[in-house]
């Protein structure tokens, strides 16, 4: 049975994941308005991924039978000075989420809640990938600041299609949505 401390923190993390999703939608809309369709599509996809992370956490809460809450989220940052700032915001967000997930794993470990600690392992692995992806994208966008079409070309070349679902991912509430 998951510890009450872990369940409380996981409910909070659901809110953080939904907030991350909303931030990515705001970034995607910014790039869409700038007629940068590959950057927009990349961040729309990131928004769905973060939403799905929240849904996985909700399913874990439901499976554990300790109640699931869907917290509200603050409004995302929507105004950006240039094409670089949204990616910098995204990288900062991914680093913050990485710290939050690590703390969540720590709570599980501190309480001897090995099932919940195991649940967090997939998210820890995922965060390594997310930070690396955003770090790379930030370097590319900084170099392409004056010609964002170069960034579009990079995304077309390096991120050509949606990746297959990870079969090791936890199930999401609502099934395969």
Descriptive notes:
The structure is a single chain. By secondary structure, the protein is mainly alpha-helical. The chain has a single domain, classed as Ferritin (Up-down Bundle).
Topology:
Blueprint: H1 4-33, H2 37-64, H3 85-110, H4 114-143, H5 149-158
Helix pairs in contact: 1-2, 1-3, 2-5, 3-4
Please describe the structure with a list of short key phrases separated by commas or semicolons:
Ferritin; 177 residues; elongated; mainly alpha; 0% strand; 5 helices; 70% helix
At a glance:
The protein is mainly α. Helices cover 70% and strands 0% of the residues.
Number of helices: 5
Question: Tell me, what's the shape?
Answer: elongated
CATH homology superfamily:
Ferritin, core subunit, four-helix bundle
The strand count comes to 0
CATH architecture: Up-down Bundle
Rg:
17 Å
Strand content: under 5%
Report the top-level CATH class: Mainly Alpha
The count of domains is 1
The largest sheet is: none
Low-pLDDT ranges: none
Mean pLDDT: 92
């Amino acid at each position: 049975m998951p510890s009450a401390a872990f369940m409380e923190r996981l409910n909070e993390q659901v809110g953080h994941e939904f907030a991350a999703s909303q931030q990515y939608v705001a970034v995607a809309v910014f790039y869409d308005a700038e007629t940068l369709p590959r950057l927009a599509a990349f961040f729309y996809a990131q928004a769905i991924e973060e939403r799905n992370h929240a849904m996985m956490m909700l399913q874990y809460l439901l499976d554990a039978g300790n109640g699931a809450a869907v917290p509200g989220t603050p409004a995302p940052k929507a105004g950006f000075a240039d094409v670089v700032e949204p990616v910098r915001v995204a990288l900062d967000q991914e680093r913050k989420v990485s710290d939050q997930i690590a703390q969540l794993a720590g709570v599980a470990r501190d309480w001897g809640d090995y099932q919940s600690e195991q649940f967090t392992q997939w998210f820890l692995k995922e965060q390594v990938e997310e930070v690396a992806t955003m770090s790379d994208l930030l370097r590319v966008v900084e170099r392409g600041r004056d010609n964002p079409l170069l960034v579009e070309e990079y995304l077309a070349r390096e991120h050509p299609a949606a990746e297959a679902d990870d079969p090791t991912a936890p199930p999401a509430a609502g099934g395969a949505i």
